[in-house]
Amino acid sequence: MAEKAILFDTSRCTGCHACQIACKCWNVLPSPTRLNENTFSGTHQNPPDLNGATRLIMTYSEADGALPNKPVAWAFGRRSCQHCTDAPCASICPSGTLYVHEESGMVTVDASKCVACHYCVTACPFDVPRYNGMQGKVNKCTGCVDRIEQGIAPACVSTCQPEALSFGDRDEMLAEAEKRLAMLKSRGYEHAVIYGAEEIGGLHVIQVFKYGVEAHGQVLDPKVSPITTLTNIMKPVTGVVAGATVIGLAVMFGLAAGYKRDKLAYNAETEDTISLETGEVIKHGDGQDTESVKEHITCNLPIGKKGGDHE
Amino acid sequence: MSNARVQVTPEQAASDQRFLTARKQKGTERYIVRHSKQARITHDVTIIACLLLCVTGLFVFVPPLTQLVGADVVFVIRMSHRVIGVVFVAVPLISAIMAPKGVAHIFKNLFAKWDSDDKKWMILFFPYLFMAKWIHMPDQGEIKSGQRFADGMLWFAGALMGITGMVMLLGSTVFTLGGDAYAVVLLLHDIGFFLIAVFGMAHIFLGAGIFQPYRGTHKLMFGDGLVSESDALYHWGHWARKELKNGKNVVEK
Amino acid sequence: MTSHWCDFRNTDVILHCGSNSVENHPVGSKWLNKAHELGAKWIVVDPRYTRTAEMADIYCPIRSGTDIAFYGGMFNYIIERLIEPNLADYLAGKEVPDYNFEYLLNYTNASYLLDPEYDFDVESGLFSGFDEATKSYSNNSWRYQTDSVEEWDTTGAYAWAVADGVPEFTPPVVKHPKRDMTLADPMCVYQQLKNHYTRYDLDTVCNICGMDKETLELVYETYSATAAPGKAGMILYALGQTQHTYGAQNTRAMSVMQLLLGNVGVPGGGVNALRGEPNVQGATDMGMLVNEQPGYLKWANTTDRSSLRKWLESQTNSDGYYTNKPKFMISALKEWFGDAATVDNDYGYDWWPKVPSKKTDPDYTHVSTFELMSQDVIKGFFCWGMNPCHSAPNASNVRRAMANLDWLVVADLVATESATFWKAPDMNPADINTTVYFLPAALIYEKPGIVVNSGRWLQYRYQSLEPWEEAKPDFEMCDLLWTEICRLYEDEDGANPDPILNTKWDYYIDGKIDPRTVAWALNGYRISDSNLAEGKVDLLPSYSKLAADGSTACAMWIYSGFWNNNNAPLDPSAQPVGRRDNNDESGLGLYSNWAFSWPANRRILYNRNSADMNGKPWAADKKLVEWTGEKWDLVDQADFVAANNGVPVPPDDKSFFMLWEQNARLESYGMVDGPLPEFYEPFESPVGENLLNGALSSPCMSFAEYESTKHGDASDYPIVATTYSVTEQWQGGGQTRMCPALVEAMPAQFIEISEELAAEKGIESGDKVRVFNNRGSVEVAAVVTKRVKPLQVHGGQQHLVGLTHHYSWAGVFGTEAATVNDLTPNVVDPNSFTPEYKAFLVNIEKATGGER
User: The domain containing residue A267 runs over which residues?
Assistant: First the structure.
């Protein structure tokens, strides 16, 4: 199987919500069912964002129109996993829940492995994974690899009547995107742009935006967060330093093996500290040490000295 | 302490001789009270919680471990991590509320000014770890300079872990922490773990007396809280002399 | 639709007016994308910037209820810019590339001379023939001048009309109209049209409708470019055009526009009503109306159709295909009454109830039905698959009317607002004595049957699930009711038994009611070789074989041919209706082997008009029919006489053969409220005068006199309101409110408000807004949007708002909400009796809380 991609072409998208609903139906994701349980966002965008039971939402943004005969730019967006090639969620996931499906390149989910660590939630440059508190699992688009493996397109794609969504080999989707872009430019959409060719190593959702990236609710020039990079670095660093510490401590332990010292006592009357083994006074009073650091290190060294290992 | 013998006056020598004889006749050893019972219980519970947290935390922190045991076991481990985390945070807080003076004492010591012995000790500490047989360390007050540094790091890391842990616990239950905020908190939690791992191991190595010269120190926290006169003079010379002279915290047995 | 969904792709310009098809017909609208990508221009004219507008190239705003001003401006533009400058050239034989004069002159009635008495008075806003007392027109002066007359040849072509078994009637006389092919005669339709619409200049239209002049001119220019021979433009409309007190005139206006541009009968053209999923097309075809029985034949009435003879004489066309109407009618009666229908008893015609049809008679159309309930005339009500307490105009009035009933039967999928009308927030159950019966109905997937889409395609649907618990398909409920009624009549006798007991009811297979036998009846069969009760049928190949002598039975002549395979009469997949071959041999997306398109599997109606007077297609690459010199080469089924008894008929100008004159009507005497579409302000108008004539609102509008309509003035209610649907929910919501994912995607009913009006009223998105007029007050959520903008009307700023209407109190799931149709006026179009949902007045304020 060649590398696959979903193509989202906003020039055909009518914002009908069918992809959002097909996603919920195919993946058996619940919606609120009680009377009056849903709240209304005040726009067409409902629910207003992804949540633990919603992996894909349509977004709607309104701006003043840029074209002479279109007074409004009503930009429809499709907010869901972008299936990055260098998926930071998959690289940070400790449990193997999120992983790149090798045949297709989609970043899929094995929720049974999820340990709810939230690392993926923190790592996603698109703020996509959501924690489902009820299940204690992370929830995000699986790329419908269950369908892809059976030779059918993801549920959102299959349901899309205006054919704004299509699915196929990634290079073909990119080529189609170029055609769609040229068509949009010819219709006067000068801010039209392709998204997903290079971002985060190349996305497996290629998008053609009528009104530019941000108008359609996407992140302009997405980057893996430096915090995610640091977090990823912290693991090996901790491992190496902890390992070095263990080794160091072992060496110390070995070198100090057989160490003996004289038992001491203190005669408060004379302020003498006395070795009980020898009866000798080894310190008088409680003054500050007067020897240099070098002397401390060298004075007892067995080499070239009178020796003695009496302490 | 140099191994050079100290010259004393005959009067002093005679006094020392009497002192030694009396000591022998009595047949008892002198000990200094170092840690109260509450301090020991607080420390020990927290230490055990900390160790358990480290172990349980590893099952999320180390991917192969996570995958080895599977999600269900990790779920149980994660839930216990949360419960133990609450203990780890709550016990020191309760103890601190019960004994505010003790807290003040600890922090006064932590931030006490370093004298020349303190500085020299710190410089000599790393050579000492590898050359304990040869290097004699300068006398120290109640808390060694290096010990103060290490304790400080553990206090800091512990507090960091407690706070970040609580934020994550509440952020995934009571409220929803945004991805970016979660990322920062998680990174801090990881940094806290790094510090605890390094300083905690060193602390155990020395504090539990695994290191030969420190043998016996485990009793300070996990025993009766008493330090023998000899050990006290070796580790905390200035403090030991003050206490022995003062006598108030000295017990003989 | 005169064309069909897949034909969208053949168009050069798409014009949406009164339709938001991308929202409400999301599946079929993919064909618009195909056209767009092939280079078609796309125009949307709508009060709001809709989902469809977002797809289009040009958006033109319009004040709700001013469509005819817009269309009139278009006619004027076409006449001024395309016809007048080129007419002389064309008549002189010169090539005119921008306008299709051949179409206008030969295929429309532009050249017909009107009665000298024909007139329109701008001062009064009235056409000739108006009777002030009855507020109605006599159409005598709207007819043509007669050139010559011709009688039916009952010894030749019309011998069937006097054959044995055919009821006696006087055949009509063909009155060949006078024509002036130079279009110069002042009484010719073209000259009258031209004079009529000179008032509709760009400035006046903009002042009425509220768009700016540049945009309007661009729309006219872009769309009228389809007047060039070989170019096609299609108008797509839906309830935004029909649900007005002048909805039928809107449809007329669209037809006139398409005829002036030569866009009817060509691929990618047509007048395209987009019907809804609830089988609106099927319901219309099947005659679920007071005035028409199945197949667009009129019911018996108390005046010009009070006997079969009168029916035949008033309904049979003098020329064209509808000369065959007696065959359709007698065949229908034979299916109604079977063996009991004989020529001696006028085939049982008199057993039919007669629709009251004098101006003073009670009116049994939709809106008026509830008025009759209020007056205690109607005491029992079968409410079958509709939900008037939610979706009828002035719905609170409907609820109060229903409280006067003795009994109410509701057959529906769920307990709708109508099934629980006494539970409405404004009703007091203690005061209501109506006995309510609820018949749980099977959902579409729980029963087999046939649906018809807007493109007139009949498609068979198989049952996929068993009905839920006691729910039953409608035809089973009908059968149980009918059987029991007949049993009671037989056992206990009753009033007027003949119509009941003589009705034929034999649609059983193995003792069980079955839609396949109904399909036989709809298709038609030869009676002599059939016995439906025994499962024996001799199906007719098409309606051309129907007879007026009682030898054939057919309940639905227009569908005839959809179920005509005698080899497997019980197998839907072996019938034309069950065809599933999606190969497109036409290359034009006709898909002639997919299902069956009535009539006669014709995919594009009036397709003779796709070719010129010599039978050559206007667009060589879009050939539907072509005269080869010897015969017609037919890509689509001919919608004209292509051959007579096997002999090819050479091309002539009879391109609309369903009309007696066989040319399309720019001017039509068939409308009750005027022969040409004339602009009148809506029932409730925000302005005090009509800038185009002296009548403010339509003089023929029906039911405005009802006390319950409670007309509101602009001084109290200055904001123009309209209503519409969203794609996530469907109509009254009975089904979609049960789908959690749909409710989640669109959980509320809302009002769309411009940023300007919101600022004026201190309203923000998500706020509750109280919307009110004389009829009702509802609270809905606010959507403050750039997609609605105030318009410049009569020189001032005019605010518009729009409301959705999917929720109400009866939802078990979803969201409880006020009933938006409490606001809409119960006034109707006098032709179609369709209510005004799309233009009325309200005022709004930020809700103070309390009631939802």
Answer: 260-311
